[in-house]
Amino acid sequence: MTQPGPDGRSPRQPQQPPPHQQPLRRIPDPGFDGDTGEVEAELASALASYAADAGAGWPSVLAALRGSRLLVPVVAVLGEVEHDEAGLAHDKSSDMASVLLRGADGRLGLLAFSGSRPLQAWNPEARPVPVPARVAAQSALQDGAAALVVDVAGPVTVVVEGEDLQGLALGWRVARVGDRVAWIRPGPE
């Protein structure tokens, strides 16, 4: 029950404008305006170097990934099923989920793709979610995955795991130290 206002009358509730006159809601920009789904040039070059010589190309791949956009696939996963009077199953609900792949060793890897063509080669029904590689690495760790698997269907597959996955997730810079890779935590800006 509402209390009367100082003039003794009931206060009026503010009226909402009709739905067609309400301001439009905006979906937040993921930060990839104008993204065509192509593999970014620096990452494509690094992947080509890695394909030619994995050892020599690995630092370039990590450096390119650090600033790259990846496409994390989401697929429909059947939720509840209902059966009709003939006993046939029908989808009652479904959810969208990112994809974790279990390797032969039992460890999980979060799938991500460098561009829309490699994603479509893997599964044409998957929907791309563009994210910075750092966010994909963070998601892999949050999901309990041991790796981020980039371009599982090729043309060049890259598996980022261990310290490299941690460094990528933290946004650290990669440096070549002899024939190895080291991650450097950025200083304060």
TrEMBL record:
Domain of life: Bacteria
Stretches the record annotates as Disordered: 1-37
Biased composition (Low complexity): 1-13
UniProt protein name: SseB protein N-terminal domain-containing protein
One Pfam family matching this protein: SseB
Ranges for domain SseB protein N-terminal: 43-165
